[in-house]
Design goal:
globular, single chain, mainly alpha
Length: about 350
């Protein structure tokens, strides 16, 4: 009987929603959960871990990424027209080949996986088309950067037994990555402009527009930037800021700003803060400031977890503490992979990344 009671308590704990009245409470509890699910585990690893020469890990040059992205798009287009013809078996075989190459897994012809592959291809195509429809000038490199997290969010939909669809909030969230990263990481944007952007975007994410209308629906046409009333330091970057604000409107199409779904916007604010905090990793001796390894570790763990927490909220609207801990852990792992992927590019700017410096010395 005692064992049964303990199990029931655990089940109840699994259902506790991660919700708070204020953002300060949300942020404090989230950072505590992040440390328990990431750095605390990392520090517990033995110091004599051996290097693993795993042939399943392959680097992809930018040219290869572009080619693979084009192949995905072409496949999604012609498969939609020919999947009911006599060529359907050939198309199916090609689909398996593309996805096996992309995820670097052994060739499989499991029928149960084909539906997932097909959905991933269709959603990838929808995302690319929607991105180009909203912003005809966007580069493939930016879309590829945005599309990486789309695949994780689709995988999370599968895990949560949800319909596999490209929602407005998934689109808006993933498009924020190229728009904000290119702005914040750009050496052409003055520090004063970045500081001002940080302030207004934080307010926009957490509280919304001053004239927010919960019944309004954003239809995907770029907003008039002349109505933004930006400060002089941001006027030269009005086009970029306008696009970033439009992405939050896509998110608001799915999740209204009310008490029930305030966690969605608190999570978005958290990833924004983590992203801005990560700029400290770029500091050099010339800046008069040198980040410590402890700070670099903390920033990497917080940013990785925050990105997947926001993704989880955008898929479900509300999350339990157990799911939050899981996403913190997964985000930590994905941050490791991301640091490894961008290591060469970022080191050219003399940025510091915890995981890559840990592995490569």
């Amino acid at each position: 009987m005692d064992d049964i009671q303990i199990n029931n308590d655990n089940d109840n704990d699994n259902d506790i929603l991660f919700e708070f009245q204020s953002y300060e409470e949300f942020r404090r509890e989230r950072l505590k959960l992040n440390n328990e699910s990431t750095l605390k585990l990392w520090y517990s690893l033995p110091s004599n871990l051996t290097n693993i020469d795993n042939k399943l890990f392959r680097r992809q040059a930018l040219r290869q990424q572009r080619k693979r992205l084009r192949n995905f798009k072409f496949f999604a287009i012609y498969s939609s027209f020919l999947k009911k013809t006599f060529l359907k078996n050939k198309i199916r075989s090609k689909g398996f080949q593309l996805w096996n190459e992309a995820f670097n897994i052994p060739p499989l012809k499991d029928e149960s996986l084909y539906g997932i592959y097909q959905s991933l291809g269709d959603i990838t195509n929808q995302f690319l088309n929607k991105g180009q429809e909203y912003d005809p000038k966007i580069r493939y490199e930016e879309l590829f950067k945005a599309g990486r997290t789309v695949w994780f969010m689709i995988a999370f939909q599968i895990q949560m037994n949800l319909p596999l669809i490209l929602t407005d909030s998934i689109f808006g969230y993933n498009m924020l990555y190229p728009y904000t990263d290119d702005f914040i990481d750009s050496n052409q944007v003055p520090r004063e402009a970045k500081k001002e952007f940080t302030k207004i975007f934080h307010k926009r994410l957490l509280f919304g527009e001053s004239i927010y209308n919960p019944d309004a629906h954003f239809h995907g046409k770029q907003s008039d930037v002349n109505h933004l009333n930006l400060s002089p330091s941001l006027e030269a970057h009005a086009d970029r800021v306008g696009k970033i604000f439009d992405m939050t409107k896509f998110i608001e199409n799915d999740w209204k700003r009310n008490e029930k779904y305030q966690g969605v916007f608190m999570a978005l604010t958290t990833i924004h803060e983590s992203q801005m905090k990560s700029t400290l990793q770029h500091a050099t001796f010339e800046d008069g400031y040198q980040p410590t390894m402890t700070l670099i570790e903390q920033i990497s763990a917080e940013k990785g977890g925050a990105s997947l927490i926001a993704a989880g909220f955008l898929i479900e609207g509300r999350l339990t503490r157990v799911k939050m801990a899981y996403l913190e852990y997964m985000g930590f792992a994905f941050q490791l992979l991301d640091d490894l992927q961008v290591r060469c590019t970022k080191f050219k700017n003399r940025a510091k990344f915890f995981f890559s410096s840990f592995i490569y010395g």
